[in-house]
Amino acid sequence: QLQLVESGGGLVQPGGSLRLSCAASRSLDYYVIGWFRQAPGKEREGVSCISSSGGSTNYADSVKGRFTISRDSAKNTVYLQMNSLKPEDTAIYYCAPICGDSHLYDFWGQGTQVIVSS
Questions:
Q1: Can you tell me the distance from the alpha carbon of 84 to that of 86, in angstroms, rounded to the nearest whole number?
Q2: pLDDT for 22-73, tens place per residue?
Q3: Distance CA 7, CA 83 (A)
């Protein structure tokens, strides 16, 4: 089973930036990778996804123009650059080798907490 470890979360003021990392112990070259988030009391939702080649990306409407997903094959890592953060971005962020429906995956990691607050 592919193991992914999320990191890079923290406390940031509204308008600030964070870069999240999703790291694997082996190559991610053949995997799509999605970022998801779960806010307190809400279901896990998809945020962004990147194809195995990195040539195709997509974003939830709520983060378009603010978040950028990318991948570094040499480091077996997928990133989520988050700019212009808003309080409603507060959530635990997870990555997984899927895109779309979070119910299709059962092996979630610990995630990384993002808190946007003044």
A1: 7
A2: 999 899 989 999 999 999 999 999 999 999 998 999 999 999 999 999 999 9
A3: 16
46 and 58 Cβ atoms separated by less than 8 Å: no
Question: What backbone phi and psi angles, to 5 degrees, belong to 40?
Answer: -55, 130
Residue with tokens 């997903």: 69
Residue 52 neighbours by CB under 8 Å, 6+ apart: 28, 29, 30, 31, 32
Q: Alpha-carbon distance 96 to 13, whole Å?
A: 27
Phi and psi torsions of 73, nearest 5°: -60, -35
Assigned token pair, 109: 């990691």
Distance CA 114, CA 72 (A): 22
Look at residue 1 and tell me whether its pLDDT is greater than 90. Answer: no
Q: Which of 52, 91, 46 is nearest to 73 (CA)?
A: 52
Show the tokens assigned to 86: 């808003």
